[in-house]
Amino acid sequence: MDVSARERRNQTARVISAVESGQRVVLTVHGRLVADIVPRHSRSERRSRELLLADLAEIGRLARELGVESEASDFDACLSTDDMFA
Questions:
Q1: What is the pLDDT of residue 58?
Q2: What span, in angstroms and rounded, lies between the C-alpha atoms of 19 and 8?
Q3: How far is CA 27 from CA 21, 23, 48, in A?
Q4: What is the pTM of this model?
Q5: Among 26, 19, 21, 38, CA closest to 2
């Protein structure tokens, strides 16, 4: 579904309804494609912190067993496990 900025403003409820039903909406300005409005994906599963850490430990064990090495700085995004659940 393509909508102009004016249509989006005048028909907000219809656009939201389309997105809620799973449709991708393309926003246009003067006929130019400027943005995609897409449905949010909901999580199908929420894992506890304990299960997540256990999985990560298992991945680390398998990596060591297979001789896979990587620099920790490759993965440093300044996040903690608390940030994963925010």
A1: 92
A2: 12
A3: 17, 13, 38
A4: 0.44
A5: 26
Helices H / strands E in the chain, number of each? 3, 3
Alpha helices in 2-84 (DSSP H): 5-10, 12-20, 49-66
Per-residue b or e along 12-47, where b marks 16 or more CB atoms closer than 10 Å to that residue's CB:
eeebeebbeeeeebebbeeeeeeeebeeeeeeeeee
Q: Token pair of 43, please?
A: 């999580």
Q: Using the structure block, give the residue that is written with the tokens 């900025």.
A: 5
pLDDT along the chain (86 residues), means of 10: 85 90 90 89 71 90 87 65 58
C-alpha–C-alpha distance, residues 14 and 8, integer Å: 8
Contact predicate 23/2, CB 8 Å: no
